[in-house]
Amino acid sequence: MENGIANAIVDEYLTLVDDSCVALLPHALRIAAEFGLADLLTGGPMDVEVLARSVDADVGALYRLLRALASVGFFEEVTPRVFALSALGRRLCSEGPDSVRESVLQSDSYHAWAAAPEAFRRGTPVPLSSGPHGGGQDFFAHKDVDASAGRSFTRRMRERAASCYAGVVSIVDWSRSTVVLDVGGGDGFLLSAILRHEPRLTGVLFDRPSVIASVAGRLGELGERLRTVSGDFFRELPDGADTHVMSSVLHDWPDEQVDTILERSRTALAPGGRLLIVEMVVSPGDTWHPSKWSDLGMLVLTGGRERTGPEFEDRLNKAGYTVSAIRPIPGSYFTLIDAEPR
Ligand SMILES: C[S@@+](CC[C@H](N)C(=O)[O-])C[C@H]1O[C@@H](n2cnc3c(N)ncnc32)[C@H](O)[C@@H]1O
C-alpha cells in the first residue's frame, strides 16, 4: 500500500472512530467468526431465528449484528430477516484459500492488546491471568496444553503467510538442494508446496511435539519424501539437510534467542548448504509497511520483533552466516533472505 493511501485510510479512521462501523468492525467480525455464521450460511440463506438457535444467540441481537455486517457487504438480507452469504462474507468461512477467519478471531492478540500499555512500559509481554501467556516460551507452551489454541494458531499462521508461499517456491533455485529442513514449519504447508514443485527433493518438517502430533497423518500424499521430526530448536536441529528454511520463525524471538536458533542451524547444516529466511523486513524511513505493525504485535504477544535488513545481517553474521541476497517475495509483503555459512 502506498503511503498516501495509508494516510487517507487513517485520516478517515480518525473521523469515524466513534461508535461507527470503523471502530466496531473488528469486534463485530470477531463475533461473527466465533459463531461460525459464514460456515452456517454456505448451504444457502437462513432465517435469523434458525441461525440464532444454531449458535445459541439472542435472536434480536443476532439480527442487529447481521444487519450491521450486511450494510458493509458481508451478508445480504435477501428477504426480511433471511440472510445470505456474500463473496466478502465467504472470507469468514473456516476453509478456503483467502479465509481470514482465524486472523479475525485472534484471541491471543485480543487478550494481549487489552493489557498492552503495561507491555509498552516494560518492553516485554505481560503475563495474563485471563489470557494464554506471558510471551516467548510461555506463548508456545500454552499451545501445548490447549490443543484448540494450538490448532487455531497454526491456522492463523497459514492465513498470514499463505500469500508468500507460491512466491518462495518460484524464486528459489532448488537445483542445488537435496534435503530441505523446514525449521518451525508449522503444518507443513510451505514444505509440501516446495516438495510438490520439486519432485527430486525430500523434506523434514521440524516443530514442537504438539504441532507435529497434530499434523501427523495429514501429509501422507508426499509419502516417504516428507519426514516429520519433533523437538526444540533451542536445543538441537536434525542434521543431514543442505537447505534450511525458516519462515516467520525468527520474528517470534528477541535477539538472544534468535542467535541460539541460528547457531543450532549453522551446526546442523550439511556442508555446502544454505539457509533461506522468510520474514517481513522493516522498511527504512516513514514508508508504510505491515512489518512496522506486525512488530508491535510481536512486542505484546511473544516478546519478539520484526527486523531491518542490517539487523538480520548482524544476527546472521554472529551465528557464522553471510547474507548472499535479500529479495522481495512476489505477490506478498514478505522478503527472502539467502544466507550461506562463512
Ligand atoms: C510463527 S509460526 C511459523 C510457522 C510456519 N513456518 C509459517 O511460515 O507459517 C512459528 C513456529 O515455530 C514453532 N516453534 C516455536 N518454538 C519452537 C521450538 N522451541 N522448537 C521448535 N519449533 C518451535 C511453532 O510451533 C510454530 O509452528
From TrEMBL:
InterPro entries: COMT-like, COMT_C, COMT_dimerisation, SAM-dependent_MTases_sf, WH-like_DNA-bd_sf, WH_DNA-bd_sf
Domain O-methyltransferase dimerisation: from-to ranges: 24-93
GO molecular function: O-methyltransferase activity; protein dimerization activity
Record Pfam families: Dimerisation, Methyltransf_2
Domain O-methyltransferase C-terminal: 136-321
GO biological process: methylation
Key words, A-Z: Methyltransferase, S-adenosyl-L-methionine, Transferase
Catalytic residue positions: H251
Protein name: Methyltransferase
Organism: Actinomadura rubrisoli
Highest classification ranks of the organism: Bacteria, Bacillati, Actinomycetota, Actinomycetes, Streptosporangiales
